[in-house]
Amino acid sequence: EAGVAQSPRYKIIEKRQSVAFWCNPISGHATLYWYQQILGQGPKLLIQFQNNGVVDDSQLPKDRFSAERLKGVDSTLKIQPAKLEDSAVYLCASSEPFLETQYFGPGTRLLVL
Amino acid sequence: AQTVTQSQPEMSVQEAETVTLSCTYDTSESNYYLFWYKQPPSRQMILVIRQEAYKQQNATENRFSVNFQKAAKSFSLKISDSQLGDTAMYFCASLSGGGADGLTFGKGTHLIIQP
Question: Is A26 on the interface with B (CB under 8 A)?
Fold first, then answer.
């Protein structure tokens, strides 16, 4: 069974530029999460989708971050404009509904200069 | 809101030894789940073990086992016969039973297995 796929793996941008990350969850997983992991810390939830609806985006900085999950499968996370403090690893995870175990992708490492 | 605390930033043991990583948590939920994830240098977060709070029996997965003390809100991970490949960051995490809040992670413990 294929795991969670993410691209790109690495991205370097200048501050105030925009960037987008893509995630493809495990087939059949209705729930999709985006986490931000700053160096030296544990991941922090940014947004959770159930199918193509948002369940929780309370920690998403909505003035610069946006996310969508069209057709309830793939998802994109966008940052516009990026700040230096957005440098982090962005992890995507998915789970089957009600089974609670989340499986993570390899992450996208973002460096904002 | 849930909180997870890992008080050991780094631990180092010799290969084949047994090591225990500590984790405490706080939650107002009656139904919740606890996890240990491993994150090697590749950054891929890998599930190690999972515990349902309503189960009294401690979870085990091969060389990995937990000591779940519900009253004390403690959830430690024991790794037996440690191997070089166990070197990684280990994160303790909690999830409310409804699953609507995502995982709450601790800050992690860097485990180094020495040859």
Answer: no
